[in-house]
Amino acid sequence: MNMNDERLRDLLRQADPAAGDPGLASEEVQAMRRAVLTSIPEPRRSWIPIAALAGSVLAALILALTLLSPDAEGPAAPPRQPARIAEKPKAAPAPVPVPPPAPEPAVQEPEKPRETRALRKKPKPEPEVTPEPAPILPEAETTIAAETRQIQFSTPGGTRIIWVLSSDGASH
Amino acid sequence: MDQRPSLTATERLARLFDAHHERLFRLALRLAADREEARDLVQEAFLRAARKPSAVPDGDQSGEAWLVRTLVNLCKDRFRRVSVRTRVHSSMKASERDPRRIEDEAVARASVRAALGRLSPRRRAVIALHEIEGAPVREVARLLGISEVTVRWHLLSARRELAGLLLEDRR
Questions:
Q1: Neighbouring residues of B45: CB distance < 8 A, sequence distance ≥ 6
Q2: Do B162 and A35 count as a contact with CB atoms less than 8 A apart?
Q3: What's the complex ipTM?
Q4: Is residue B51 within 8 angstroms of chain A, CB to CB?
């Protein structure tokens, strides 16, 4: 038996399951509609802008507190330090006596009279303070007194040269 | 239907549901084994749209096509889970439960439905949309998201397959 397209179409339409079906009842439709619409997920908020805002506010607060606090002058203090050191010797009354001749004399700083710091190192003869370029400067020592300043040189031959510079500009 | 961007997802989905649930249910009846399954398929298609509203394209026709494709894909999933033999067997058994009350026409209808049930979901959808609903090939292609050539090829193959199955059943 041959079955052409028209015959098949007729059979399919006769057997259409939806032909005799009344469709969904209104209660079914309402229930389905409610189920579908209530299953829509809540739109999620993006926390990135909020976190960025909070972070910037926090950073601004920290910066403001740092700038306005009394300790904020701390960073500016180091540049003033040399100035204070330079002013102090004027207030110091007594000059530091010249150290006795020794193979390695220690240098005392005026603002800390008790503290002695050795500036000379034999294996590494580099001058720490050189007011003038001197050709014979394997070792140099600087003594900062209240009003005078001593510069000692030791030549490789053993000759010791001591310059005493006073505040009025005279040198000895 | 005008789809303005100011519509919320809920309003958009509500409009889509109101506009297409009947048509989708009719198609589901033609694709599913029974009414309950058809109702589940329609609800699941709309639930997929609700869970991911951004996946549903704007526009009424595009939204309808998206729903039809989702429905057919859901049928495919079920088709994979339930074997064809089981489906046909249960369908035939249902028609044999009370043979006295079943007329010849009803037997023929059951045979056609059983044969339709052995087609793949996409092919069944093509047959349902074109042969039963009378949709033109271009419309079927748009709804299923395939080319017209593919629709025609599915139609040709489905007709051959159905004719063979029905003739086999009548012997």
A1: B24, B67, B70, B71, B74
A2: no
A3: 0.73
A4: yes
